[in-house]
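Exercise 4. Each item below gives a protein and its sequence. For each, produce the structure-token representation.

Item: FAM69C protein (Branchiostoma lanceolatum).
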Amino acid sequence: MAPRTRKRLCKFVFAGLSLLILLAVLFVVWRFKAHRCADQESRDTLKKLCEEYTRNKVTGNLCPDLCTAHSIIFRECLNYRKGKKVMLAEWNTEKVILKSQYSRLQEYNSLISRHTDSQGKTVTLQPDMATFLMVVKNQLRAMLEVDIPYAAVMETVQKMWQMPWKIHETMSVATMESLWSLLQQDEYLMIQYFQGNKHFPKIYGSCGHFYVMEYTPPGDTLSPRWLNFKTGREIIKSATDWDKRAKVALSFLTFLTDLNTFHTEPLHLCDVKPKNYGVSADLTIQAIDVDMAFFETKMRGILGQGNCTKNEDCDFVYCTSSCDLTRRRCSEHRANNNLQAICEKIFVGHHGVPFSGLLRSPPAAIADRLNKALQECVKPSKNNNQSQKASPETLETIRDLLRESLQSNEPNR
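Answer:
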């Protein structure tokens, strides 16, 4: 083949490959946008919510801010079309998150019954307070897996509602409907339960079935951007930001300890990924998405209900279990633990992307020892051919190495 012909062929092949890559990128972008929510849909949802507040169908301590004073201003929808509703807003110049499992109040189960009487009028019937509080108690027990004393139920209702309400005072229909819609959202209950713990966002209040909470994004620390698409230059500076990433990793380890001690049962994290955690200004991590978090008793019920022919059949997202091949039933006991999931999906990296983990490119002084500890964390050594969970000793080793790296860098700051 003549040199000129070969050169033309190479140009043709290069142009063809470039076109295919461009089309692939455009397709991915289109699919992403197709699954994202539309801002107008979110605005319509909030408009409907405010209309219901005006008609006294819903209420909440932040309804006036959202619907009357308009001090809570919608900025952007953040959820996928088929997922829960998550919106970014500004409240007196501070960024906050508006969140609800469903868009409309009518999508939640109602405790209020309505019927038409003989004169054609709509009659509304609501439970008395004793019945309502008993329903609330059962709902809390289903999530926490412990029996809640009656006095604690009333205290919990007062804490969550954040509006004037005297014990034994009958709630209005709007109040009962709004509060009950919130109580049906497991994520809301989980975050409310952990209020006061620094690793969970603050809940400021609610309006109807939407609650407003602290905005703590993952940022570039947990979700790094590799390139600046305007300049084409690398953004990640693996060496210079080590101290920041090490402090965030230490916060993760403290968070894991809290999950085992805050409640009578440990909390299992089954959906561990960077975007489910935020990083505050003081580098404290916060669990901002806990849809797939379960206390021990509920976790056992989930894992032990499946039939199986192999271990992989028993996995529930990132919470793994084992298959009893004799009974062909999944074990109710989790095979891995939270530390393993954090090490694999956060510290080392996720989705097979190289050098993407939080603890990428550690200082040379600890690199070999840290990488060895992380490998042991992700795939603990087996004992008698039985898989093991990442141990507390491994957690302490990683913690000590991170502290050592920070102490050695102090004179250079």
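Check: Confidence is low (pLDDT under 50) at residues 25-35, 227-235.
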